[in-house]
């Protein structure tokens, strides 16, 4: 009973907040709703017995990705009014496409409910190993190929970010710590015998 | 569990390229731009070496079915790696001449080649997706490589946004397929889909097809192609008009024939529609183009239609036709872009058809080469392109798709008009007034273009006797790794 209540609560919250992500007027609000969606999805993961994935979702998506989004959205100079300009114009077309997709999804959902999704697969037997252990056992063995390839994808993303953004500017003034540390007193200033009352000109300092 | 040594032997080409790319990256990062040329040379050697390793590596299925090595993937990989090596050569010269040379260019091409090898060998939905992502991510960066050029940045951004959308479709389709079959592996999916797929599975399959159609730029998922071809640096376009298309078509064939062989009737009708729209868009869209890269973009859309027709046949003859067609298409396109890069007038690259006027006087050999390649792409016998289409139409007729084949022929005739226009402008139009002669061509691009033309005719007649049995062997032992 309490499980059912928790499930429906979390499911409703995640669907509603997902809707609000796309309908919120202010992108900052969208990101905040996105965080709510992630949290309720994490709750659903916990109910499935996947605590580790729930933690990952919160740490990675809420902690890193969503906060990064928030930074980007706040730093970009987006004109929210201008962003909304085409809304009324494109709404009818978008509504038609959305309705068609919705109808198709319902057909699939009904098919899934009747035929039963994944009926061809046997259920994974419940074992006493923890989430982390279960993932750890297959990640570097059965899925090592995919895991390494995903690493390569990240490498490409990193190279790409550097290629597209890093610029070497030859005339820029950079801090050279070695030179700073090696600077001696004699390089920095010299004693000039200045006569009293005459002042010092630039020529004397050369 | 599996034998990791055997697995590494079978996946040796990818492992070699992955490790090699990291070494090249370190070499470039620590050696600076002084070593740029060395990195390019080593990348070419690495890609050619990987092609050799791919041809000799043992066949089989490893990593729990995620990686399949069969004659088809070997054929595709050799072709892909060699095309990538040519793209490095073309790009090295071009970026140097345009002052944007950076050592990351060959490294990214090598990493894209790893992704394409994964695509050609994908045995389950996960390696399909990761391979596609690895390849596309490298291509997004390459498209925007000329980052101070507004059009290149626009091309990169467009390609990225639409590519991300297609990846979303691909993932959604994959998750539905997984949900309805309970497996990621194509052979296990095939067991569930053996007696025709049910509604949910078809829904997932259609999403998968749409996602892949985006990647091969088949109409109606082609919107990005002309803009990207126009804006991205020319050697990069030469690269992604060829090797990634080949990889994606092999992936297409494998996912559909191997994973959904039993549901052929259901996916064949989707592919027929996609290829018919591609014929129409490619043939009629190309007519209005004045810009050569845009024209080639529409040409590639039409050609992808023919390649999809070969898959639609769903027979061994179809797969053989796919391999031969894509090989010849790749050679023609690479040659075309190489010659386009070799031509400039007064320091400005020639990009419009009208700029080709009077080329006959300045560059007779290049003019002959472009003529040969044009005739080949439009499918005039006995040039290479004709043989590709010959096998495709043969396979389609055998499988009973004669209406589609007939419409394909009509599209071919319409498309012939714009290739003939290029030939007419080059041979018969007077050179533009008040402009100097065509500049001397850079040797690398010019020789690659000439070689491609020589392959299109007459070398193709010799190559065919050797490629035809190879492709047939690849098609008959498809998936039997």
From TrEMBL, chain A:
Coiled coil: none annotated. It is found in: Cell membrane. NDH-1 shuttles electrons from NADH, via FMN and iron-sulfur (Fe-S) centers, to quinones in the respiratory chain. Couples the redox reaction to proton translocation (for every two electrons transferred, four hydrogen ions are translocated across the cytoplasmic membrane), and thus conserves the redox energy in a proton gradient. The keyword Iron does not apply. InterPro entries: NADH_UbQ/plastoQ_OxRdtase_su6, Nuo/plastoQ_OxRdtase_6_NuoJ. It is an enzyme of class 7 (translocase). Keywords: Cell membrane, Membrane, NAD, Quinone, Transmembrane, Transmembrane helix, Ubiquinone. Belongs to the complex I subunit 6 family. It comes from the Bacteria. PANTHER family: NADH-UBIQUINONE OXIDOREDUCTASE CHAIN 6. One of its GO terms (cellular component) is plasma membrane. Its EC number is 7.1.1.-. This is NADH-quinone oxidoreductase subunit J. One of its GO terms (molecular function) is NADH dehydrogenase (ubiquinone) activity. Its main location: membrane. The chain crosses the membrane at residues 6-24, 31-50, 56-78, 90-113, 145-166. It is a multi-pass membrane protein. Pfam families: Oxidored_q3 (PF00499). The keyword Transport does not apply. It comes from Brevundimonas abyssalis TAR-001. It catalyses: a quinone + NADH + 5 H(+)(in) = a quinol + NAD(+) + 4 H(+)(out).
From TrEMBL, chain B:
HAMAP family: NDH1_NuoN_1 (MF_00445). It is found in: Cell membrane; Endomembrane system; Membrane. The chain crosses the membrane at residues 6-27, 39-62, 74-91, 103-120, 126-145, 157-180, 200-224, 236-255, 267-288, 295-315, 321-343, 364-387, 399-420, 447-467. GO terms for biological process: ATP synthesis coupled electron transport. It comes from the Bacteria. InterPro entries: NADH-Q_OxRdtase_suN/2, ND/Mrp_TM. Residues 122-413 form the NADH:quinone oxidoreductase/Mrp antiporter transmembrane domain. One of its GO terms (molecular function) is NADH dehydrogenase (quinone) (non-electrogenic) activity. It catalyses: a quinone + NADH + 5 H(+)(in) = a quinol + NAD(+) + 4 H(+)(out). Its EC number is 7.1.1.-. This is NADH-quinone oxidoreductase subunit N. Its main location: membrane. Keywords: Cell membrane, Membrane, NAD, Quinone, Translocase, Transmembrane, Transmembrane helix, Transport, Ubiquinone. It comes from Brevundimonas abyssalis TAR-001.
């Amino acid at each position: 009973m309490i499980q059912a209540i928790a499930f429906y609560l979390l499911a409703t919250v995640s669907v509603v907040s997902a809707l609000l992500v796309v309908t919120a007027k202010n992108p900052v609000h969208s990101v905040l709703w996105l965080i709510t969606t992630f949290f309720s999805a994490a709750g659903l993961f916990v109910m499935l017995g996947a605590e580790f994935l729930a933690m990952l979702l919160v740490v990675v998506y809420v902690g890193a990705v969503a906060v990064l989004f928030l930074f980007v959205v706040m730093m970009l100079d987006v004109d929210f009014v201008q962003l909304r300009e085409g809304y009324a114009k494109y709404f009818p077309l978008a509504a038609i496409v959305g309705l068609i997709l919705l109808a198709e999804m319902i057909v699939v959902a009904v098919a899934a409910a009747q035929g039963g999704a994944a009926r061809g697969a046997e259920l994974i037997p419940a074992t006493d190993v923890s989430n982390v252990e279960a993932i750890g056992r297959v990640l570097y063995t059965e899925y090592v190929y995919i895991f390494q390839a995903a690493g390569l994808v990240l490498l490409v993303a990193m190279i790409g970010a550097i290629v597209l953004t890093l610029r070497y500017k030859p005339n820029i003034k950079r801090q050279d710590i070695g030179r700073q540390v090696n600077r001696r007193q004699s390089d920095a200033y010299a004693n000039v015998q200045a006569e009293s009352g005459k002042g010092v000109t630039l020529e004397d300092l050369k | 569990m599996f034998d990791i040594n055997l697995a590494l032997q079978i996946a040796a080409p990818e492992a070699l390229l992955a490790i090699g790319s990291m070494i090249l990256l370190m070499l470039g990062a620590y050696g600076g731009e002084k070593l740029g040329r060395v990195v390019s040379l080593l990348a070419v050697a690495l890609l050619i070496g990987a092609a050799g390793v791919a041809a000799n590596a043992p066949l089989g299925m490893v990593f729990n079915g995620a990686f399949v090595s069969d004659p088809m993937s070997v054929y595709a990989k050799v072709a892909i790696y060699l095309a990538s090596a040519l793209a490095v050569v073309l790009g090295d010269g071009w970026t140097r001449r345009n002052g944007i040379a950076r050592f990351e260019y060959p490294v990214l091409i090598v990493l894209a080649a790893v992704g394409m090898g994964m695509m050609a060998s994908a045995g389950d939905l996960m390696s399909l997706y990761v391979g596609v992502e690895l390849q596309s991510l490298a291509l997004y960066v390459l498209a925007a490589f000329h980052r101070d050029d507004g059009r290149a940045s626009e091309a990169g951004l467009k390609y990225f946004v639409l590519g991300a959308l297609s990846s979303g479709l691909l993932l959604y389709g994959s998750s539905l397929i997984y949900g309805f079959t309970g497996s990621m592996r194509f052979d296990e999916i095939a067991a569930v889909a053996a007696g025709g797929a049910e509604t949910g599975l078809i829904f997932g399959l259609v999403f998968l097809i749409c996602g892949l159609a985006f990647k091969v730029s088949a109409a109606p998922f082609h919107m990005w192609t002309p803009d990207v071809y126009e804006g991205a640096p020319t050697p990069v376009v030469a690269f992604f008009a060829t090797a990634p298309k080949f990889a994606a078509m092999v992936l297409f064939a494998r996912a559909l024939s191997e994973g959904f062989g039993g549901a052929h009737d259901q996916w064949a009708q989707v592919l027929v529609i996609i290829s018919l729209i591609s014929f129409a868009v490619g043939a009629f869209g190309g007519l209005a183009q004045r810009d050569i890269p845009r024209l080639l973009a529409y040409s590639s859309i039409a050609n992808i239609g023919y390649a999809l027709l070969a898959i639609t046949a769903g027979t061994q003859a179809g797969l053989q036709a796919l391999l031969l067609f894509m090989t010849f298409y790749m050679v023609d396109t690479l040659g075309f872009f190489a010659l386009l890069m070799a031509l400039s007038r007064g320091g400005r690259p020639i990009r419009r058809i009208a700029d080709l006027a009077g080329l006959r006087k300045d560059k007779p050999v290049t003019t002959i080469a472009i003529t040969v390649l044009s005739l080949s792409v439009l499918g005039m016998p006995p040039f290479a392109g004709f043989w590709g289409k010959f096998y495709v139409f043969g396979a389609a007729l055998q499988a009973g798709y004669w209406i589609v084949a007939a419409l394909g022929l009509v599209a071919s005739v319409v498309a012939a008009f714009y290739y003939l226009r290029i030939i007419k402008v080059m041979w018969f139009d007077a050179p533009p007034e008040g402009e100097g002669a065509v500049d001397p061509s850079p040797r690398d691009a010019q020789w690659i273009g000439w070689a491609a033309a020589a392959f299109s005719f007459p070398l193709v007649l010799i190559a065919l006797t050797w490629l035809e049995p190879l492709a047939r062997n690849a098609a008959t032992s498809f998936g039997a790794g």
